[in-house]
Structures are given as structure tokens and as C-alpha cells.
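Limitations
The C-alpha cells in this dataset are predictions for the assembled complex, not deposited experimental models. Users should treat interface geometry with appropriate caution, especially where small molecules or nucleic acid strands are included. An illustrative entry is reproduced here so readers can see what is and is not provided.
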Amino acid sequence: MRKQLTAFAIPPERKTGTFSLLASLGFALLGQTLFALSATNGAGYEEISEWLARVGDNASPLPGILSYLAAIFFLLRGLKQLGTPLLPASAPQTASPALAQPARMGFWFSSLGLALFAAYQLSLPGAQERHSNGYPILAVWILSLGLFLYHQVNLPTPRTLLDLWRKHKKEILALLLLLLLAFSLRLLDLELHPYPMNNDEGEVGKSALCFLRGECNNFFDIGWAHRPRLAFLPYLPGVAWFGNASALSVRVGSALLGGLAVLFTALFAREAFGRAAGWVAGILLSALPYHLHFSRTGVDNIVDSLTSALLLWLTYRAVQRGERTFYLAAGIIAGLCFYTYPGSRLSAGLALLFLLYVSLFRRGFLRANTTNLLMAGIAFFLTLAPLLGSYTINTNDFNGRLNMVGIVESGYLQSQTEATGRPAVYIVARQFALSFLPFVATGAPANFFNSPRPYFSFGSAILLLLGIGLVLARLREERAFLVLAWFIAPILFGSALTISAPSSQRMLGATPAAVILAAISLVSLTKALQSLNQAAKVAAPALLLLFLLLNGVVELKYYFGEYRSGNYYADLSNEIVYESRTYISDLGKNGIFYMVGAPVTYVVFGNFGYFSPDTPKFDFNEISPAFVSQVPTGKNILFVATPSREADLRQIAAQLPGGEWITVPRRSFPQEILFFAYQIRRQP
Amino acid sequence: MTEEFLIQAVLLLAVLVGLDVGLWHLRQRKINLRLPPISLPRLSLSGWRRQPQEKISLSAGDAPQTEDSSSLQNTPVTVIPLSSGRLARVSIQAELPPGSVLHITIRADEEGQVSVWQKSRAAFSWQTLQKPFQALSRVLESFLPRSLQAWLFGLALGVYLLVRLWGLEEYPIYFFADEAVQTVSAAELVQRGWHGPDGEFLPTYFQNGRYFNLGTSVYWQVLPHILFGNSVLVTRGVSVLTSLLAALAVGGILHRFLGARYAWAGILLLSAAPAWFLHSRTAFETVLFVSFYSAFLYFYLAYRNGAPNNLYAAVLWGALAFYAYSPGQLIMAVSGVLFLASDWRYHWSQRGTVWKAAVLLAVAALPYLRFRMGGQYEPADHLRQLGSYWVQPLPLTEKLKSFAGEYLYGLSPFYWFSTPFTRPLYTALLNFFSTPWFDLTQFRWFEAMGGDLSRHQMKDYGHLPLWLLPLLLIGLVIHLKRWKDSSSRVILLAALAAPSGASLAEVGITRALVFVIPASILAGTGLNWLLAHLQSLPTFQNRAKSLAALVFGLLLGINAWMLTDALQNGPLWDTNYGLFGMQYGAKQVYEETVLPILQNEPDAQVMVSASWANGAQYLPRFFLPSPLLERLSLGQIYDIFQKRPPLGDSFYFVVTSVEYEKLIQDPKIANIRIRDQIPAPDGTTAFYLLNMDYGENLQTLLEEEYQLLRTPVQETLPYLGQTVILQHSPLQGSAESLLDGDPYTLAMGKAANPLTLEFFLETPIPLRQVQLKTGSMQSFTVTVRVYPPESETYTETTQTFTDLLPDPVITLPLGNSPLLAGRVFISVKDNTRGDPANVHIWEVLLQ
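Predicted assembly:
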């Protein structure tokens, strides 16, 4: 019995460390509680200059911050006293013999020449109209990359793949399981949650539809919201498979991107901080409401989390192993980052920053990897070349989005400095606070999420902040530097330096880093706990699993429960457009749809175009007998009116008798009317 | 469109794969040099095993099947451990007999596995693709260069040609009459049985407008014209291919006479010089001159460097250059004198060859002597037409000062390297260094290149790129230090000679273009020096090839960028597409619009405006077959009012948009019907294709208009030391130019025939005779009436002149004794034309 009890006893030399850890957790709990109690989603919480003055009103994050500083201090002290490394060790490297560089003829001129040729073709004035060359240019581009890679990499043979499977069977299965979990959570009831489908999703759907209907052929053209049309490629399978009948078809693309982001986040964390951190990060991200939500909306913001995780995993792996294949893959993915949501360009910037950091601080790295870096650069260039060609005639589109939303470019910073009399630095700092606090303290109003709760749950927010403390303490380590930069960059560039902070839709690139930070602290704490005694060695992993389970339940309960039932995502206009789709699509090409919707709903909204691309649609807002008399006879006609325009629709119905009056209630609030419709059938 | 794209892509791919095969072949042969003759070495790795120590062992045998292997104990093996401790680079150099197989075994320590990257230059696993390529490469082998530098030299020439031939018709966007005239003159020479317009057999020079300045350039186009006919592509293509001489000469000089290892860099630098980039894509005769001059330099240097017989080739190329371009005559002369003086000892030592070359030179000079003795044209005439200060009534010291100023300006970096971006910097620097008593901005030397027309510039580029300046300066210093070396001296003297031709009038890029050749050589020298120093740095040691490839890639990128920029943005650099801008539209008007009309409608007549292009008369002769020219006329719509041919839907007019705006407001014209519009590159309408009818009351309106143009106007001018009132028929040009003492300033009557001038003198003068310089008229009558002061009676003198020389100076004596004149009336009537007519008067002198 005594022997059994000693298994639970903490050795004296570990007691101080244990106390420090407990103190750390205590202060962290206190800090998070103070955040929870003080945080307001109203204006003022982010006013840094008033943090001190507002302490007494319990409306300042300052006490929470101070408490967290203490928590981090004790955590560092505790880990040191217990002899636990601040950051978990990285996973052991395994060789990739199958991907070794082959000795083949190099198609240097061909690959570069073809890429330049594609770029040149796309840079010709009027290239956008020449859609007939779109697919040939795509083929030239792929051939260019293929020829380049032919010299550089060997594709793994079935035998080597089989060897790999045999060697890492368990881990691969576990990864597949994680992927399955991530996909499942992202595909569950996808059509109706989040509800309703927003009009940007319709724009994405329209862009995919454009290719499927053969109206667009040029993937390098600039499409909706200044995006290269290639950005909509992930949405093609969903729209092709499910058709343009519901939100599901567009959202499947995002779900796939989000699921893959989980996988690559886990792989990066595994590579840099060990297997345990990998699993923890993957599980945390798979259930993170913020990430889940954008993985379930059919807009491509979510791709930021995938590109950042994938590219930085490849870059980190390339740097650590010196393998050409990963350098090349990183170069290609960095190039592809420019083809999608503009936030993804930040991933390429981060990869470059990381390479610079390693070049500066790791002796001999540059010399040993000059060729690898050069090849990565060429791969990057080859990937990017056609788009560069396209941008030469669409120069305004390259930074088109940033020019609209950047606080400097749009004049917001200047106007704020003038309005508040504060220096620009303060405005940026306030913006940063506004953008950062939703991760741990405040809600994330509007901006396609509108969550009253922080992105991270109470428990995982603690881990995130402690994780930040840990990487700050080990910032000289390449992996620590990378993960911190990865976390901060999207917050700074995606939200703090853009208008309407916090811009939830533009900070998704930070989510993988955030969960990795949380995973680091959780794994470090677990390892420290394990070092206390025999019982803790067994109990700590169980506690970790328990935490993950509980945290998962909390997160999913929030997103599929409170967030949904609270209708935080509800939007009357989007609902009207979405629910009227079946009525409009019945009209087909020959009917006409009139929207009596001002000032709420107009036919230019993307979902109208997505669901009923062929139906003629008109806004019909000035109601007069003369106007109504001009409505064509002999066609099927549908009028849809918002509740506030009911009287106008009744006037139309009186002048054009014989139609059917339809009243549609709101799905989320059945007691409320969503819209009225008046349908005149003149053709079978 | 897709088919065109696919054809382009396939052709490009074929060329590029060819280059890749060549490169592969080159690398392969390098190994073959070690292991001749047939068998390729095969590298094989025997995997990784867990062993206590890292060990590398080598063995070699005659064939892979046998176990008869021997260990290569003395083979150098280098293992470079890298920082992580996990990676190492293993370098093995082995000399093996033919057919050998090299086995390499790498054993890792027991800590873990080792991953192996296998790099073998000799093995080529894609056998199916390799075989045809190998066969092809064997065929090509004899043509292939022997070293990387030679390859790059060839590739540089390829790049040079590619960036010129690609989109040749699209940029420059204009096809200038000065380009067309070369081919037109060549075609007409052939048609006339090798006689000139005056019946001269193989004339030395052909006329371009008022200038007799086309020589070699016309003969150069004869064969292409006979073989391929007239087209923009052929005319310009000939120029581009000829300009390859310049590229070859620059590369050749750097390689052969200046010992540059990276001689190909000079070719790419020349190719990327914006002034040359633009002009070498045109058929202006300056391109031919520069190209021939480059060849002249090359062969002169060959002569000077121990191969005396090359002097004959130098003379021949020099002669071709001399006859190619009129400002080039002085450049050739100056170069000749400078080279003669610079290398006189050598010439003396080779006097046998030099005398023979002198005879050749004398033969080459015969056409020029024949031309000069024909008296058709004086060099001074050309200068006068160019507005040169040299033929103006100025003191010699002023002329020399102007010459020095222009000459130095032709060497000024402010001229060659200035861009709109650097100009503010220059201005700020000049203002900073200027003082009230020493204003630098007054010096021509510091002027930016603003004087050149936009059609002779690549917008925002500068004539030479600014990044070339440091390289050029390095090269300059190197050659100055090597002044005693003849080759260096020749390059520097060529640079000094370059602006001499332009200095006689005003420095302009076409006249000073030859400067790009010494500039490229100097910059090429600078770049070679830089690369040589880079190679000596530890980072670049043993990486000469990588460095070469890097620099090649960089220069290739610059060339590609310029080409893309020019083709894509060039059409929009200057949106003035008219006479004073780009003169855009020759191909679009004649080839794409007028030609189909004349071919498809046998009754069609077309009148094309000539107001938008210099030398507009050459353009239809270039684009249209001779039989169709009969139904084409050049000029303004107003020109038909006199004869008034019947108009209708088959009488077409091509007018500029500016003219169109005037036409639609003109009551003399009615019922304008737009048949087509020719867009300018910026999308605006450049030309309209119209039908129209005469307006109602046309005759009345014309009479009113003519009356207005005949009604004299009055102005007060200083003349003969007093103020005179001059009442004259309306003029195009200033009346002052009649009295300014300069016989080369023109005033032209707007319509009045006779053109009248009436002088009201404040102080009466004794008048003995009246001297007039008029325009060329077959027959004209001059009447002078002299009124005494305060009197309405006059003395009249009239004389008719016929068949005088062009622009004659005539004197009309007023009697034996001078008449006291208070008022003088002069009338000049063109007897061959009615009213209206444009009577030309250059100068009036009351004596």
C-alpha cells in the first residue's frame, strides 16, 4: 500500500516546480476569468489608453493580462525546475528515399520558356477575351511545371509507397482518422448550418458554374473580388456533383479545404514539436468553431489556413531535411498562394521570412542549400508566371482587394488619426488589440462570423496564451520563431491593418498557428506532469485526452448548439434570396423574375445569379400602374417582395389578377414572414 | 486562335527541347571526355546499412556482370559534413577506363538511416526519349559549340534575334515612310532596269523627300524585295538580320580582341540598350549604318591584331557604312582619321597591305565622286534642310562653339541615361551645384534627352539603361588604363567618333545611334571585370558556370521584359498617333483598308489623307501594287473641289479623326457616310473611311472662302532700319521670314495667285532693283510697282521667268537710275496654276 502511495507522492526536489506549475495554472485561470468577466463586445475595450483607468470598472483586459504574465512566469519557472523542455521535441526524421532526385535530362529551357510563353499569351491586350486559349494555356503551364519536376523529383513507386505504409501504418491510419473527423464535422448538416447561405457564396458558386457551363475557360483571368479564377477550382467538384440547387454544392469545397488544413496543421506540429503536439493541434483545429464555421461557408477565406499549414510544413520539412522535393513543393505551393484568396500570399511571405531567418542564424545553411533554394525559386516562378502575365494587363487587380480594405490604402488610418488626434502607431496598436482579443477574450462581431464568444474556448484560450509565452521564451529556436510569426502575421496584416477589425474572415491563416501554440503548452504541461511521479506518468496523457474530449464537446456544443440556435449568422436579405431560389428556378429561361426588394434585397445579389443563372431578373421597386402594365404577357412571372413591400406586391396582384399569392415564413423564426411571392403562370 | 496558339506552342516547345537536348549533350560530352569513347559511366548506389562507422568505399570493374573488381584506393573522395551533422555532401572524382562500372557503397552509422541523393550526369533513364534525341544530337554535334561560353554566345545571338523578330510588325507601332522608302526605291530601281529616276545607271544615292541620302539601304532591300515582295515583316526583317552583324561584332570584339571570357554578355547588353532595341526593329537606314560600322570595327581590329588582310574587309564594310547613312559619312571620316593617326606605326609596318587597301578605298569612293560631280546635291543642302547651325550666317567661332557643344552632348550621360524618373534628380543636382554666376543648367551637356521625338524613345527607359552606366564606367576606366593597347584605343576612339555626325546639326538618337556599339563593348568589358572579381570570391569559386548562367538569365530576363513591355505597353506609350507623334496607321490604312477596297471594287477610287505622316507618298507605293495606285490619290478632301469628280459610294476617303471633326462641320460637304473606322491602339478612332457628297452652294461657299484667302492683310514690321507696313496676301508662315535675310525661311501664300506684297515705307528709299527667292515654278511673272512718296502714280516693271532652277533667286532691275520709293507693290503669279495656288516666297530684298 505504502509502495502504491509512493507512486502518487511528489519527490521533494520536484515540489517547487509543481508549485510553480500550479501557480501558473492558477494565474492563468484567474487571467482568463478576468477576461471573461471584463470583456465587452462594445466599443472601448480595445482602447489601450484607457485600460488602466477602466480597471476599476471591470472593463479592462489589463488585470487579465497581468495575471497571464504571472502565469507565464511561473510556467517557465516550473518547467525549468522540473527539467521539462519548454518546447516539445520535434519528431524524429525519416528518410524519403523514394523522392530522391533522379538523374535525368533537365528541361530547363522548355520549362522556363513554356511558362514565359503562357505568361506572354496572358499578357497580350485582349487576352481575357480569348477564352478559347484558356485550357491550352493551362496545359502549357502544367507541362512547364511537369518538365521542370521531371528532372528534379522521382515519383514514389507503388513499392516504396507500400514500404511507407508498412512502416507507418498506425500513424497513417490515425491521420486518416483525424481527416475523417475533420471532414465529418465540416460536412455535418452542411446545407443548413450556417444558415443562410450568404451572397458571397453565390458569387463563388457562379464562378465555378462559369467553368462548368463553358462560359469561362481562362483559369488565369481575374474574376470575382479580384481573385484569379483558379481560386474557384476547389469549388468545381462540389458544384458539378451537387448542381446549383442548394448551399451544399458550394460549401463542400470549403469543407474539403478546411479538412485538409487540419491534416497539414497536424503534420507541421508533428514535424516541429513532436507527435503529441501534432495530434493535439489537429484535434483542436478540427473542432475549433471559428475554423469550422469558415470551413462550412462556401467562400474561400478558409484556404488561408490550408495554404499556411501546407506551405510552412513543406518549408520547415525542407529546411530540416534538406530534401529537394520539399523545397520544390514549397516553391510550387508558394506560387499557388497567389492564385487564391489574397490572404494566402501572407503564407508565401511567411515561408520567405522563415528561410531568411534560418539563413541568417544557421551557419552553413545557405551554402548547403543554394541549389535547393534556387530550384524552389524557379518552381515558384514557374508556378506564378502565367498569373504575372495576367496581372500585367490587370495591374489594378493585383492589390485590388488590399486597396479597398487596407487601412492605409483606403485612407482609414489617416481619417482616424485626424478624428482621434492620436498617432498612427496608436491606431494600429488599437487595431491589433481589436483583432487579437477575439482569440481569447472578446466576441467576434459581424464579418461573416458574428460570434458572441471568443474564437477559443475558456480552456483552449488559456493554453494559447501560455503557448505564446513558451515560444517567446524560446524565440531563437527556428520553430518557435516560425510559429509565432505565423500566428501574428495574419492578425496584423489580415485584420489590424485592414478596416472593420476584427476581420474574422481574414485571420484564418492564424488558426493553425494558434492551435499549435495551444498544443505546445498542453503537451509541455503534460510532459511536466508526467515527470512528477509514476502515477502522473500514466495519468497525464489520460488528462490530456480528457481535456481534448471536454474541450471538443464544449466547442462543438457551442457551434452546433448555441451559435446555431442563437441565429447569430442570420441575415434577412440572404434568407430571402436563398429561400426564394426554388420559386425562381422554376421559371427557367422563359419566365421573368421581379424583385420588389428595396432597400433590402436586389437581384444583383450573387445567390440569385448562382441558383437561377438563366432566368431574366429585374428589380421592380417603383410600383405604378404604368410600370406594371409593361410586364410582358404570355410569360411565367414571379414577383417576390420583402415583408415591408407587401402593399406594393398587393397592388401588382390587383393589376395583374389570376396569379397565386404565396407567403413564406422565416426558417429560423417561423412566426415572422420572410417574403411574399406572387406567381403568374401563363405557360405550362 | 486556338490553332495559332497551339502551333506557336508546339514550335516553341520544339526549339526549347532542342536547346535542352543541346545542353544535355554538352554536359554528357564532358563526361565522355573522361571516359571515351562509347560507354557511359554508370553510378550505382548499394543502399544503406547499419554499420558502426560511416565509410565510403569504391570499386571498379570492367563490366557489371563480373566480380573482377578492384578497389580505387587513390581515388580522391571528399566528404563535406554540413551543419546539422546529419547531412554530408560526397564528391568523388574517378578516372576510369572505357566501359568501367563504378560501385559506391555508403554505410551509415548505427544512429539511424541515411538518405542518399544520387546525382549522375551520365545516366539517362528515359530511354525511349533519349534515343531519338541522341540521334538528333549526333547529327547536330558537328555544329554544336565546344564550350559553355560558346554555347552562351550562340544562345545570346539567338536571344538577340528572337527579341527582335518576335512581334516585329507590332512594335514599333508605326511603319514609317522612311522605312518604306527603302523598299519602294529598291522596287522602282528594279522596275526601271537598274536605273534611277533620272536615268542614271545604279545611282549612288536615292531621294527621300528632299534629301538624297539613301544608298546602301536601297540596294540592301533589292534581293528581299525580289524574293518576298513588299511587306513590313520583310523590310524590317532585313534590318533586323543585318543588325545581327552589330551583335556579332560586339561579341566578337570582346571575345577575340579584348579577351573577355563572357563575351556573350556584350551581345545581350547591346540587345537590351533601349535605343538599339527600338531602332534595330525598324528599317531606318541608321540601323544599317551602325551594323556595317560594327563590322568595320571588327575587321579593323582583326587587321590591327595581326591579320593584315582583314583591312580589305574593313574597307568594304566601312564603304557600305559610309553609303548607308548621311550622318555616318562624317563618322566614318573621323574614325578613319583617328585610326590612321592612332596606329600609324602599325600601318607603316603593313604598308604593302595598306596601299592595296587604299586602292580599294579609292574604288569604293568612285560612286560618291560620281554623285558629287553630278551636282545634284551638296552636303550643305542636306545640312540646310536639317536646320544646321553650320550653314547659318554665324561667325565661325559660334559655329565651332555650337559644334563643340553638340559633340560633347552626344557623349553626355545626361543625354544617354536620362529617364523621366532620373530627370528630377538631375535637375535637383544641377540646381544644387549652380550659382547665379555659373548656371550649369545653361550647358547643353546637362540637358536630358527631351529633344528626341517620342517615336524614337522607349518611354521611361532612357536611350541606354541607367544600370549600364556603372558597367560602362568600369569599362571606360579599364580601357583608359590600357590606352597603349591598340584594341582599347580603337574602342575609345570609336566612342569619340560616334557623335561627330550628329554634331553638325543637332544631336538626335538616330544620328548618334552608333554610340551604342562602343558603349556596349565598354559595358561588356566592365561586366567581365566584375564577373572575374566575383569569381575570385570564395562564394563563387568553382562556380563559374553557375555565375555565367545567372548573369545570362538576368540579361535574358531584361531582354524578355523589354520585349514584353514594348509589345504590350508600347502601343500606349504615346497616344498622339498623328504627325507629331507616332504616325500610326500605315499598315492599317493601306494594307488592311485601302487594298481590299481597290482589289474588290474595280470602280472604287480612294483618297487618303496625307496629313498624318511624313513622306506619305511612299506608303501607298509600298503597300499597293502599281496598277491599283491609279485609283488612289493622296491629299485633302478640299483638293477635289477644283476638279469636282463625281462622288458616290465608290469614292472613298480616308481621313484622320481630326479631319473628320472638321468635315462634319463644313457646309461644303454633305451626307457623310462612315463606312469603317480604324482604331488607334488606345481604342480611339484614328481614321474614318467615308463616302460623302458635295454640299449645296459649294461654288458660292468656295468663292467666299477664296475671296477671304485673297484679301490682303496688314502688319507692321521692322525692315531696312525703319518700320514698314506690309500689306500681303494671307500667308502660311510668318511674313517676317520674307524679310529676315535668311533665304531658307519660307512663307507660302494660302491661296492668292498672284501673291501680292505691298510695302508702305515710313522713310522713302532709293530703289534700284528687287530681288526675290521664290519656290520652284515652271513659269511665273513678277510685277513691281514703285510709288513715289505721297503719290498714286507708279512705275511698273514686269518680267516672266520660265524653266529656272529649283527655288530660284531672281532679280528685277527697275531701270537705270534708282527710284525714290514711298510704297512698293510686288506681285508674283504662278502662270501654270490658276487661283487658288500656294505661291512660295523665301526672301524679298529691296535694293
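Some entries come with short summary sentences. For this one: The mean pLDDT of chain A is 89.
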